[in-house]
Design brief:
Elements (H helix, E strand, L loop, with lengths): L9 E2 L2 E2 L2 H13 L3 E4 H7 L6 H9 L4 E3 L11 E6 L21 H10 L24 E9 L5 E9 H4 L6 E3 H9 L3 H13 L6 H10 L3 H10 L13
Helix pairs in contact: 1-3
Length: 241
């Protein structure tokens, strides 16, 4: 059976979506087992603003596309098209398999309570005034892609406001990398982080407030603060060598 062209936006009277065109591009231009870069992908689809996301969507349809997290030989900007999945350009085949994300009212309430009724992307609370000063935040339940420490991909429920949910970024969490960073913390840093987690908030220390104020100062005033700290030994400072 002849494949449609990835460059055609329509097949007969049917529109060919960007995910289907991306799949056809992988098959006919990249080829199974070969590497492509994000730059090459975006050059092939200059008018598709979320073409990276369409490639990620293919993974939910059985397509294997490895990144540097899956294959250590790949550079950060490279991906490898390993194998094809569902023929998404065929009518009725592009629909993603259903994840277990149908929640009852009680289950939704449990997620909201666990997240303290806060958007876990921007931190806004339910009913809080948005930046436009007119609308109030509306909270929903989102599925977030999490790469577990053992390398398994999971989808977990999280509270997210309507504004963040409609954004263009496809948020992912590398839990294994995060846990490695936690292990590298000093005893004092671990104690501080544990306190923030227990309170589910970070309280600013005086030094944090000073830093925030310092960043707002004009250059002349910033220099005055720097001069006041001139007697402090800064790690890595080689100006006296």
């Amino acid at each position: 059976m002849t494949l449609p062209s990835w460059q055609d936006e329509k097949v007969g009277n049917r529109k060919l979506g960007s995910m289907s065109r991306a799949a056809l591009w992988l098959l006919t231009v990249v080829g199974e087992g070969n590497i492509f870069t994000k730059g090459e992908l975006r050059s092939a689809f200059p008018d598709v603003s979320q073409i990276d996301r369409r490639i990620r969507d293919l993974r939910d349809r059985g397509w294997r596309i490895d990144t540097s997290r899956d294959d250590a030989s790949l550079k950060q900007e490279e991906q490898r098209f390993v194998s094809r999945g569902v023929d998404v350009w065929v009518p009725g085949q592009a629909k993603a398999p259903k994840h277990k994300n149908s929640l009852t009212a009680a289950q939704r309430q449990k997620v909201f309570e666990a997240d303290s009724y806060l958007c876990r992307s921007c931190g806004i609370a339910v009913g809080e005034e948005c930046e436009d000063g007119v609308t109030q935040s509306v909270l929903n339940i989102a599925r977030r892609r999490v790469l577990l420490a053992e390398g398994v991909e999971d989808f977990q429920f999280v509270t997210e406001c309507k504004r963040c949910g409609s954004g263009s970024t496809d948020r992912e969490v590398d839990l294994g990398a995060l846990l490695e960073l936690v292990e590298d913390l000093s005893t004092m840093e671990r104690r501080i982080l544990a306190g923030w987690i227990a309170a589910d908030r970070r309280s600013l220390e005086p030094i944090d407030r000073l830093w925030g104020l310092y960043r707002t100062l004009p250059e002349e005033s910033r220099k005055a603060v720097a001069d006041a700290l001139a007697d402090v030994d800064v790690p890595g400072d080689k100006t006296d060598d």
